[in-house]
Each structure stands twice: as C-alpha cells, then as structure tokens.
Write a structure and sequence with these properties.
CATH superfamily: Survival protein SurE-like phosphatase/nucleotidase
Order of helices and strands: EHEEEHEHEHEEEEHE
Number of strands: 11
Distance between the termini: 54 Å
CATH topology: Stationary-phase Survival Protein Sure Homolog, Chain: A
Radius of gyration: 19 Å
C-alpha cells in the first residue's frame, strides 16, 4: 500500500476502554490516518449484530476525545461494533477504511465461541465489505483483579501492522495475546487453528420462570494441540486467519426432496 492506510479503530468494550486507546495510539504513531468509532457503552457478545437504532431507526453519534490523542477523530456510537464497521465501510466516518482494527479486547477470543464476539464480529463485517481487518484480544482471564498489560498487545500489533497493510482486501486475522508484561523470543506468535472450545466457556442457567442468566466459567481438561486455545495457554500469541460465510461444499449439490 503506497500511501498511508485509512484505519478505523473499534471495539466491543466501549469508547472508554483503555485497550481501544492503546490500539488507536499504535495506529496513529505509525502515521496511519486513524479514526476511532466505538460503542458508547459495552457491547460484548454482540457478534456481527446490527442492532443499533431506537424506534425512529436513527443512531446517535457523539464526538469524543481520547486520552493523549487530541489529533485523532473519535466518536461514541449508540450501536454495536458490527454496525459501526458496516457504517465505516459505507463512508460513515469519512472515506471508507483500508484497514479495520478491532480491540484491544479485555479477554481472549478463541475457539468456536468467537462466533459470538463483538470484537471478531466487527472484523468479519469489515472483511466481507472489502477491508483488511485485525481483531486483537488480551488474555486477561476472569479475575477482575488481573492487571491488563495493554502495551504488550499494542507492541505486537505495531510489529504486525505492515503485514496487515499488505493483506489482500477482505482478509481477516484474529490475534490473541498472553497477558504478560513482555513477550520473550521463546514465545513468538504462532499460527493457530480454531479450537472446539477454550478455557473459558459460556454458561446459560435458567434461574427462574422469567429469568435466564448468562455467565462464564473456567473449565479444566486437555486442549487440542495446535489450536488457538492451547497455544495461548502455553504462552504464545496466536494468529488465526478467518474466512467469512461461505458455502458448505459437503452439502451443496446433494439432491433435495421435491414433491
């Protein structure tokens, strides 16, 4: 890419997330034309959902400023990250972005449960609309007292950005980073397949006649070798190239009942 890419930064943790600011700072310091548009409130678990509008089908957008980034355009949007990515790809925040960076999410996004991630959903939405995209997550875990090492993930993103800029249009990468103060050479990033499940899984409980509770639990057991969940648990940053919706070749072409 000969000129500086146009970049949209979004997330699902909300406009005030320090992970979002860390990601925007990296893009801005690399000289990329950076615009931030993120949910006004937390929107975790929203996948690529487009739910956003109130009854009048209009979405509120509020101009914001990010800490130590006065030159970066930033907007708080009353919408999910998938909606924000879609809007950006239709020139909703200036010219359409060449690259969409989503994150840095507080908590890993590994295994097939990435289907539900707003962080990954924004990246996938950008990809099917022609942008290169990178979803970034930090493996903070369930403990609320864990200190997030945002700069560890941010520094790895800094090193990956030239590669992201050279991707073909529509390509999507999912990056997960261990929550450690610094990465050693012995723990280099690894390509990883998508695990069937990760260490943290969703738990749905019927708590009463009119109540359903959704929570997260850590589970024990051996993780599948070579997967994002296993390599991340071993201390490696993981990178997975994701493909968006496509046909199931095993079923396509089979005869269909028709009477």
């Amino acid at each position: 890419m000969a000129v500086s890419p146009r970049v949209l930064i979004t997330n699902d943790d909300g406009i005030d997330s320090p992970g979002l600011a860390a990601l925007a700072r990296v893009s801005h310091e690399c000289g990329w034309h950076t615009v931030v548009a993120a949910p006004a409130e937390e929107a975790s678990g929203t996948s690529a959902g487009l739910s956003a509008a109130a009854a009048d089908r209009q979405v509120v957008v509020e101009r914001r400023s990010l800490p130590d980034l006065p030159d970066v355009e930033a907007y708080a949007v009353a919408a999910h990250p998938g909606f924000i990515a879609l809007t950006a790809c239709f020139d909703g925040f200036g010219s359409r972005p060449d690259v969409v960076l989503s994150g840095i999410n507080r908590g890993a996004n590994v295994g097939r449960a990435i289907l539900h991630s707003g962080t990954v959903g924004a990246a996938m939405t950008a990809g099917i609309n022609g942008a290169r995209a990178l979803a970034v997550s930090l493996d903070v875990g369930l403990g609320q007292d864990a200190e997030p090492h945002w700069e560890t993930a941010a520094e790895l993103v800094r090193r990956l950005l030239p590669t992201v800029a050279r991707l073909d249009q529509g390509r999507v990468l999912n990056l997960n980073v261990p929550n450690v103060p610094a990465l050693s050479e012995a723990r280099a990033p690894r390509w990883a397949t998508v695990a069937t499940y990760g260490r943290v899984q969703s738990k749905v409980t019927r708590a009463g006649e009119n109540i359903i509770e959704l929570g997260s639990v850590e589970v024990d057991g051996e993780l599948e070798p070579g997967t994002d969940a296993a390599l991340l648990a071993d201390g490696h940053p993981t990178i997975t190239a994701l493909r968006s919706i496509r046909e199931d070749d095993d079923l396509m072409g089979r005869s269909l009942p028709w009477h």
